[in-house]
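#help-structures
NK: newbie question, is this the right format to request a structure? protein is Exocyst complex component 8
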Amino acid sequence: MSETGNRLRKLLESPNFDPQTYVKQLSQQSDGDRDLQEHRQKIQNLADETAQNLKKNVYKNYRQFIETAKEISYLESEMYQLSHILTEQKSIMESITQALLSTDKDETSKEMQAAFPKETEEVKQRALTSLLEKVEGAKNIMDIPGRHLVYNGDLFEFDVDNMSPIQKVHAFLMNDCLLIATWLPNRRGTVKYKYSDLYDLESFAVVNVKDNPPMKDMFKILMFPDSRIFQAENSKVKKEWLEILDETKKNKVSKDRHKKEEEAPTSPIRSEVSTNPFDLEDEDPADAEESAELGIEWIQELPEDLDVCIAQRDFEGAVDLLDKLNEYLKDQPSTQKVKELRSKVDERVRQLTEVLVFELSPDRSLRGGPKATRRAVSQLIRLGQSTKACELFLKNRAAAVQTAIRQLRIEGATLLYIHKLCNIFFTSLLETAKEFEMDFAGNTGCYSAFVVWSRSAMKMFVDAFSKQVFDSKESLSTAAECVKVAKEHCQQLTEIGLDLTFMLQSLLVKDIRAALQSQKDIIIEATKHRNSEEMWRRMNLMTPEALAKLMEEMHSCGISFQQYTGDGCWVNLSYTMVAFTKQMMSFLEEGLKLYFPELHMVLLESLREIILVAVQHVDYSLRCEQDPEKKSFILQNVTFLHDTVLPVVERRFEESVGKPAKQLQDLRKSTRQVRVNPDSTTSLV
């Protein structure tokens, strides 16, 4: 750039540059229109140079843009995995916190009992009665004998979905239930609250909610499938609620267990009155054994532990508990108590199954790939739901493949798009197959479902493939390259024992047949058009380079062309015959790339019809031509077609297909008749 251009660039790049002032000074200093035009040209040259430099920088950094995008994609995947790990760590930390709270609660309870004497049942019942008088609609709460107040206080209830405040409530914790009452806006006398809900202590689980300012001092009560969130006044009150709720629930379980143990010895008293001498031996030990079987603490707390595992998404822990219970009850008699326990557990199994089914639903994130479904699938299989797990796994992967294909950008170049499409589809299919084999290794009955799914997935792929390749009327050469790419990717599946080549061929055969017939019609029409203008003159290529190029093209097709070249740049063949040979050999090569056994006769008949057009043309020309010199030239073209072109077509077809082309051999015999008896009046059909 000149010194003037550099000064102009520095002036325009200066931070204090003012366009209006610059234009005003330039107008004052210029002598006329010519100076302004020259200055305008300088600025335009500078703008063009800047744009060119910008383009060069974009091209130079284009690879860096691509690499950066890939790194961002990898980082996104790692962040997703990290989020999953943090969620699991959070669940573990909450479990540890609950355990520590339980330990502190036991120590606090012992200290409280040592510091304060235990209140009598009558005092507690009177306190509960006096409080319930303030609750509208709670008159029947005291109908249960032995029910007394343990703890009460004000709480704020929040919406579970959006964490917005709903209302202020007052909770009454009793020794066997929890009463929730809402505040009355218009108080009437001593009545302050209105009865809302009453929950049995065995029907819900209490879960601590981690503080997330401004949402803090909260805990959740789970009554599957519903849940409610409450906020305490401060962290101290929240801790008291958690400790006392847990202590009360354990006291109730312990009390129920002791009650059952005390009821067991009562049956011998009745047996003494009975006249049956076998009552003592048959009935009493069974009842005592039943109480001993189900009186273990972990069995009593099992339904609640399952609720907590489901709430914390500890699916493995929940299934481990179920396996432990089934192993314990495997050799036990089917008593009434066992049936009741199984009924409670079956409800939790149903809830756990629903959560696992939701984990595998296509509505969930599909970014984790097939491995992201392994956790839910393995637990469903352990629950005996292998068929459902197989169905949901395959639906999830079908949605992932469909989403990936839909998000693929349609490029201008069809072959580039097909490369990307095949890479995405067959890689996903291969990963899905490997994951399926790993997850369902012991369930051979599910493999047939995978084969059916593979066919539907292949149909989805072929729909997208055909829409881009065949519906857009691409050339036969492009279609052949695209089909070749799809075949090569399909062969990769054989490394895991999955061969879908036949399925791919059967789905593509209709479109390929139509493409071959369409290209055949185009070649026939073009040949007929050239035949109508045939002058039977030698071909002059004008330059040695053009002749060398033609000879190279013929050599690549397997045709010996040296003997048909003349002096200089002349070729001893007509333009029509040369153009026909190039077009037909190209059709042959592209057709062989697309060849399936189902397309054998289609390709063979197409070649026969194309060759027949040329044979009929030379036959007609020989019968009509009167000039001996031109007739000799026509015979030379017939010799080229019979001795050089057709043998190459037959040999190339047989080498690729493995079968002789009988129809083409018969057609060559007819050209021999034309060459031997050029004056025959018999027309070729």
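mod (FA): yep, format's fine, and the tokens are attached above. Residues 62-115 form the longest helix (54 residues).
NK: thank you!
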